[in-house]
Design a protein that fits this description.
This protein is an all-alpha fold and 145 residues long. The chain is built from four helices and no strands. Helix 1 runs antiparallel to helix 3. The longest helix is centred in the middle third of the chain and has 48 residues.
């Protein structure tokens, strides 16, 4: 019975995430146990090595999946470009539409960034300056009547 790559990747990610909290000990507790028993120290080293190998496998699978996806996208793009090359297509209209989409994305990104900067500056300025209705003697109203 063949399992999909997505299922295997999901299982690996789940076991890796659970493996970090499986022992339930903090680093200090593990160090204290390791200093008491040499056999236990070797066992802990083996566990850490197994975790490192599992992490490497997960990273390798994610990278391989990303490369396969990139190869598929590039292959599909080349196929479409080759198929379109045989047709008589109004390239000016297609180019205008593509540039419009790219320009809209760039404009959206710049406006989002500018809003973040403006909000940060506004928050920083309002936190530094007291409200206009506040006087110098108004700093500690507690206990005054």
């Amino acid at each position: 019975m063949a399992r999909s790559m997505r299922q295997r990747l999901g299982e690996l990610l789940l076991t890796y995430a659970q493996g970090a909290n499986q022992a339930g000990f903090t680093d200090e507790e593990l160090k204290a146990q390791a200093s008491q028993n040499a056999d236990h120290t070797e066992h802990l080293i083996d566990i850490e090595n197994a975790r490192a190998r599992a992490k490497f496998k997960v990273v390798a699978l994610v990278l391989v999946a990303a490369l396969v996806a990139l190869a598929l996208i590039l292959g599909a793009a080349l196929f479409v470009i080759q198929a379109v090359g045989k047709l008589e297509v109004p390239w000016a209209r297609i180019g205008f539409a593509a540039l419009s989409v790219v320009g809209a994305a760039i404009t959206t990104g710049i406006s989002w960034w500018a809003k973040r900067v403006w909000t940060r500056r506004r928050d920083r300025l309002t936190s530094e300056n007291p409200p206009s209705g506040r006087t110098e003697d108004d700093h500690n109203p507690v206990g005054t009547q």
